[in-house]
Amino acid sequence: MQDDGYSALTQKSVELRGRWQKPGDITDIPRYVTGQEFGGWWHSSRGIHSTDHLRLKSLILGVNAPEKWIKALGFTKARIYFSGTNLLTWAKYDQYDPELQGTVRYEIPPLKTYSFGLEIGF
């Protein structure tokens, strides 16, 4: 996704917007030359990034209703809850999921799920 022009037909990283374009540009991203076969990208460590990250992978929060309310409504229990997975990820390099291994090309971002519920017992 960060190639220097090897393939104009594949997805590109938004980082390429900051590429070198004209004399005087100061950037660490080389110019993009369409059709450049095995250019600077192939002989560079530019594509190696830290995968240090912090992720809130799973969270479940629940609250039981006060017993006084439950009895007044004729229930034996009442609870509301929230459950979620892959809620937040903090990473220095955020162009792809830091838990992916190997070469990154067209991977789908991790699925985020949210559930809200109400449990009632009679």
Give the topology, please.
Layout: E1 53-64, H1 67-73, E2 77-91, E3 113-121
Antiparallel strand pairs: 1-2, 2-3
What would you say this structure looks like, in words?
The chain has 122 residues and is mainly beta. The chain folds into 2 domains: 1-48, no CATH class; 50-122, no CATH class. The chain is 6% helix and 30% strand. The chain is rod-shaped and about 75 Å long. The model has no long low-confidence stretch (mean pLDDT 81).
What can be said about this structure in brief?
This protein is mainly beta. The chain has one helix at 67-73, and strands spanning 53-64, 77-91, 113-121. The protein has a 3-stranded antiparallel β-sheet, with helices on one face.
Based on the model shown, name its key terms:
122 residues; mainly beta; 2 domains; 3-stranded antiparallel sheet; 1 helix; 3 strands; 6% helix
